[in-house]
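Task 17 of the worksheet. Students: predict the tertiary structure of the chain below and write it out as structure tokens. Keep your answer in the requested format; marks are given for formatting as well as content.
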Amino acid sequence: MKGTRRVIRKGFTLVELLIVVVIIGILAAVAVPRFAAQKDKAGTTEAIGIMTTIHRALLQYYDEQKSYPTLANDAAVKSTLAIDYQSPRLPWTFQTSSAGLVTGTISGTNAGTLTLTAAGAWSGTLKYDPSTGPLWPDLPT
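Model answer:
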């Protein structure tokens, strides 16, 4: 057996590398939409927090003025109620009515409204239940 040499190859074959690339691609295709949905959920949670802050400021305004203001946009809400909040990351806008309603409206793919009444009840085209916490319209879970 003097003439035969054993060749030792180090590394991966092309087929093995392709299989790994395909597996990584499949994992990425599954993970990316779920992360995008989490971003939407976080933005909506942020909007609910802002609406709760506006609601509390409205109640205080009512205690002092004996009426609720009608505020058509974020700037009016901030200046009249003397509160400050950062604009949410998602395209939410907020307004109030003379009935003490706080309405949040989101535009885009998951467009809809969420309303918080003076009594603290939630309604609107989007569903939110504060006892369980979900408000994720048509988003994958």
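Marker's comment: The chain has one domain: 14-123. Residues 34 and 141 are 8 Å apart (CA to CA).
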